[in-house]
Design brief:
By secondary structure, the chain is an alpha/beta fold. The chain is 33% helix and 30% strand. A five-stranded parallel β-sheet has the order 2-1-3-4-5, sandwiched between helices. It has a five-stranded antiparallel β-sheet with strand order 10-9-8-12-11, with helices on one face. It has a three-stranded antiparallel β-sheet with strand order 13-14-15, with no helix packed on it. Strand 14 (223-226) and strand 15 (231-233) form a beta hairpin.
């Protein structure tokens, strides 16, 4: 069983989530309901949950404050929020999960399935939380993302990514130090993750960092030359949008 803690300042939200877990997630046992960061800190210390459902927006202290106050967390976190705002990107960059309110039962079951598939590792949890707190303070395009590899999570500066290439259900990530990371994720996931960080999908199989484009070569769609010397084909339907974006980037 997964021992879970629900932290939310709204009673209705706590009760609703508790009911959803009871109805749809038989592997989860809710051990406590907390209405503030302070009460949650006490409960975490005493109850030692495996999973914490953490509301992002709470009065006095938000959910991120709780993580700042805990050293060496030994639990997973699923954030809950009624708003799809900047914090969601930071959560995604850190390979953490979230649920938008009102919480959908299918989304909840999918989130619990992910938790069940995680291998316990306080080191990985530490890294994810540290990365989240760091990204919340990031200005501009200096975010880091947590890339899942066969060994665990690798923290990568988004600015160091030259391109991402699709290979069926895998994505190859090329970095500035001539290394490649292969992840079992679709390219579409990285397109969604990196779209606000100066990345653009120029082809079904290619997502590029516009800051690493050194040259555009004309053609039906043409192609771009990247900072590592590689060439990336541009689809005809993406050509005009790419040229518009490149006009705003100093190459």
């Amino acid at each position: 069983m997964i021992k879970a803690l629900i932290v939310d300042d709204e009673e209705k939200s706590r009760v609703t989530l508790n009911s959803l877990l009871t109805m749809y997630c038989p592997t989860v046992e809710v051990i406590d309901l907390c209405d503030s960061v302070n009460s949650a800190l006490i409960s975490i210390a005493n109850q030692k949950p495996d999973l914490v459902f953490l509301d992002v927006e709470m009065p006095f202290h938000n959910g991120f404050t709780l993580l700042e106050k805990i050293k060496n967390p030994k639990f997973e976190v699923i954030f809950t929020t009624a708003y799809d705002h900047y914090a969601i990107k930071a959560i995604k960059y850190s390979a953490l999960d979230y649920l938008l309110k009102p919480i959908d039962s299918d989304d909840l079951k999918a989130a619990i399935a992910k938790v069940e598939g995680y291998k316990p590792s306080s080191a990985i949890s530490d890294s994810k939380f540290e990365l989240l707190l760091s990204n919340l303070k990031v200005k501009g395009n200096n975010a880091k993302i947590a890339v899942p590899t066969f060994e665990g999570l690798q923290m990568v500066n988004a600015a160091d990514i030259i391109k991402c290439s699709a290979d069926e259900s895998y994505t190859h990530i090329t970095l500035i130090n001539n290394t490649k990371i292969t992840v079992s994720r679709l390219l579409k996931e990285y397109e969604e993750l990196l779209s606000d960080l100066n990345f653009f999908r120029v082809h079904n199989s290619s997502l590029i960092n516009l800051a690493h484009v050194t040259k555009y070569i004309k053609g039906e769609g043409g192609y771009v030359v990247m900072s590592d010397g590689s060439s990336v084909e541009v689809s005809r339907r993406k050509k005009n949008e790419l040229l518009s974006k490149l006009s705003l980037v100093q190459m």
